[in-house]
Design a protein that fits this description.
Elements (H helix, E strand, L loop, with lengths): L2 E8 L4 E8 L1 H27 L5 H45 L7 H4 L15 H30 L4 H4 L14 E4 L2 E4 L6 E4 L2 E4 L5 E3 L4 E7 L7 E8 L2 E11 L6 E2 L4 E5 L9 E8 L2 E3 L11 H9 L1
Antiparallel strand pairs: 1-2, 3-6, 4-5, 6-13, 7-12, 8-9, 8-11, 9-10, 10-12, 10-13, 13-14
Length: about 300
């Protein structure tokens, strides 16, 4: 049998010694490797093809995928709960908290920031969809937190709310000072003669009657016009309230002035579109006309009214 020659170092003599090995050893190793490969292929065929099992690597990947799917399900369930809670807070914020302090509702276009064109949340199952939905929730939560900050700021000044509400008549209640010539609501227009909504109350009186602020606030408009409201003043009382005093003859305030309840704004007249001397008085709440009679006591004793004006 042919042999192969090779030199091996002898550790005792430190000399290279010639050794001969049969050549069939290489073939033996090759045969063993081939047998192992065949056995491996046979195992894979039996495992996958016959028994229907997964390969070890495939099984590991499937377990990892199942684990991630379970985590995603838990995350989506948590986001569903957060979404439900956030919706409840948004509704309560608009209908209760902001309404109490006279703030407008936050437009849905703003609350919906980061959502789809139809305002609906993403409900996909991919990691990308879950990440986008999480981003949406974060944006909505940020908007809601800013709203709560605004409300908290108003709460700190809530003690001033009573002083800002337009709660007294704009003229003295002394007998003979005025006559209510036209209430709030539908009436026959005095010039056109047709039914038309009257947005305020008319206090018929001589030219020159003092006009007083119904509540604390800031003068936001002073206008001198030959038609419409004529010479008129608008006050922003905060908390959603505004008042307008129209058809005046003289105005004693200017835009930007801080006003206290009972401060004199000017004198009554008949400027603008008016059939006679009177004060047209309006109350606005959250940009809507409301009946001024709901906010004031026209029967307040004149002495008490005078005390408010003097104070």
């Amino acid at each position: 049998m042919p042999r192969t020659e090779r030199y091996i170092l002898n550790p005792e003599t430190l000399m290279a010694e010639l050794r001969e090995e049969p050549r069939h050893r290489g073939w033996l190793i090759a045969g063993m490797l081939a047998t192992a490969l065949v056995m491996l292929l046979l195992y894979m065929w039996v495992t996958v093809g016959v028994l229907g099992n997964d390969l070890p690597k495939t099984a590991i990947l499937k377990r990892q995928n199942a684990d991630w799917s379970s985590r995603m399900d838990r995350m989506r369930a948590q986001m569903d709960r957060s979404d439900e809670l956030l919706q409840m807070l948004e509704v309560r914020d608009d209908r209760i908290y902001r309404s109490v302090y006279g703030l407008d509702e936050i437009p849905q276009a703003v609350r919906r920031s980061g959502l789809g064109d139809d305002g609906s949340s993403l409900e996909g199952t991919s990691i990308k969809d879950v990440a986008m939905r999480l981003d949406q929730l974060e944006k909505r939560a940020y908007i809601q937190s800013k709203s709560f900050e605004d409300i908290a700021l108003l709460q700190r000044t809530a003690g001033d709310l009573a002083a800002h509400i337009p709660a007294i008549p704009p003229m003295s209640t002394a007998p003979g000072t005025y006559r209510l010539s036209s209430p709030f609501g539908l009436r026959a227009d005095p010039i056109l003669g047709i039914g038309k909504r009257h947005t305020g109350m008319d206090f018929a009186c001589p030219v020159g009657n003092p006009i007083y602020a119904a509540g604390d606030g800031v003068v936001v408009k002073v206008a001198h016009e030959h038609k419409g409201y004529g010479n008129h003043v608008e006050i922003d009382h905060g908390f959603g309230y505004k008042t307008r005093y129209a058809h005046m003859s003289d105005i004693y305030v200017k835009e930007g002035d801080s006003i206290k309840r009972g401060d004199m704004l000017g004198l009554s007249g008949r400027s603008g579109r008016a059939t006679g001397p009177h004060l047209h008085y309006e109350v606005h709440y959250r940009k809507e006309y409301v009946n001024p009679a709901l906010f004031m006591d026209l029967d307040i004793p004149p002495e008490e009214y005078e005390n408010i004006v003097k104070r």
